[in-house]
């Protein structure tokens, strides 16, 4: 696995790449508040068979971080960048591993280019209103009434305690989770101007909700094979969201895991094995 950068619209996009250059590609799309760092162990675990590429979004990881005045931090714009990134790298066909924020970015990408997407691996990434429960209530209140008071109620989301909580809550053994996860993420969040970036992205998450029916229509029309590996104790994207995909997709392989939001931290080997089998038996067969 190596780290590289590529220029997209004058911005440096950092990414991790590993595996077989001529192998089937899996595009790995990270969540909040992390980066391609979340895939640091998965890439070498699958590198003997597949080509794996994990970009950092603008404002995340080691990619450029222009201010909110210099860059429009929206899911549509992040999708624009990822779309251009895939084209710059010559990725004509790929499967998408989507998690958290990576889900709406990946599904938006699929709407634009259904002919490029061979399959999905979904890990705690939502596409149904049923999957937005208690955690989202103060966020929905802010979406409805964008006041300073409602915004301040959400500042805890970028604090170090919450970042650690995202990695440890709901896990079988919190003490075994590598602290480098939340330390690395918090360094990114603590950069001057990054809180404004995260709040802009969180506010714009509201634009994904009206697209849920379009995502679902895409699932029904194209029937991409889907592997779901979902941490059932996730308070942000709870288990109920995992089960909704079966309403629209016929070819779903689903595993509900006894872990939290970042399921790769406890169940890397299991998830890697399931991805390898899924890609070989479902995606490559369909290709």
Layout of helices and strands:
Elements: E1 2-8, E2 11-19, E3 25-29, H1 42-46, E4 51-55, H2 75-88, E5 94-98, H3 102-112, E6 117-122, H4 137-144, H5 148-152, H6 160-168, H7 180-189, H8 194-204, H9 212-222, E7 226-231, H10 240-243, E8 252-257, H11 264-286
Parallel strand pairs: 3-4, 3-5, 5-6, 6-7, 7-8
Antiparallel strand pairs: 1-2, 2-4
Helix pairs in contact: 2-3, 6-7
- Unreliable segments of 5+ consecutive residues: none
CATH second-level architecture: 3-Layer(aba) Sandwich
CATH superfamily: Alpha/Beta hydrolase fold, catalytic domain
What is the general shape?
Answer: globular
Helix/strand/pairing class, anyone? alpha/beta
Strand order of the largest sheet: 1-2-4-3-5-6-7-8
Helix and strand pattern = EEEHEHEHEHHHHHHEHEH
- What is the helix content? 25-40%
Radius of gyration: 18 Å
Tell me about the largest β-sheet.
Answer: 8 strands, mixed
Number of contiguous helices? 11
Just give the CATH class.
Answer: Alpha Beta
Number of strands: 8
Structural domain tally: 1
CATH topology: Rossmann fold
Q: For the residues shown, what is the average pLDDT?
A: 97
Share of residues in strands = 15-25%
Task: For the record, give the distance between the C-alpha atoms at the N and C termini, rounded to a whole number.
Answer: 26 Å
């Amino acid at each position: 696995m190596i780290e590289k950068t590529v220029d997209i619209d004058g911005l440096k996009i950092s990414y991790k790449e590993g595996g077989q250059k001529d192998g089937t590609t899996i595009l790995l799309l990270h969540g909040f508040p992390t980066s391609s760092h979340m895939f640091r162990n998965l890439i070498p675990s699958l590198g003997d068979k597949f080509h794996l590429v994990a970009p950092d979004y603008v404002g995340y990881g080691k990619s450029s971080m222009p201010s909110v005045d210099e860059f429009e931090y929206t899911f549509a714009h992040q999708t624009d960048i990822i779309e251009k990134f895939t084209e710059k790298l010559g990725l004509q066909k790929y499967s998408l591993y989507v998690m958290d924020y990576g889900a709406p970015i990946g599904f938006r990408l699929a709407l634009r280019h259904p002919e490029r997407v061979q399959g999905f691996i979904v890990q705690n990434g939502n596409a149904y209103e049923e999957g937005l429960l208690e955690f989202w209530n103060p966020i929905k209140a802010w979406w409805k009434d964008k006041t300073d008071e409602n915004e301040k109620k959400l500042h805890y989301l970028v604090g170090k305690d919450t970042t650690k909580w995202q990695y440890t809550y709901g896990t079988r053994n919190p003490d075994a989770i590598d602290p480098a996860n939340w330390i690395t993420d918090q360094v990114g969040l603590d950069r001057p101007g990054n809180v404004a970036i995260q709040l802009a992205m969180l506010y714009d998450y509201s634009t994904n909700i009206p697209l849920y029916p379009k995502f679902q229509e895409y699932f029904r029309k194209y029937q991409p094979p889907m592997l779901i590996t979902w941490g059932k104790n996730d308070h942000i994207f709870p288990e109920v969201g995992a089960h909704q995909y079966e309403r629209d997709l016929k070819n779903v392989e689903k595993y509900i895991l006894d872990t939290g939001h970042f399921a790769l931290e406890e169940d890397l080997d299991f998830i890697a094995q399931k991805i390898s089998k899924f890609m070989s038996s479902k995606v490559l067969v369909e290709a």
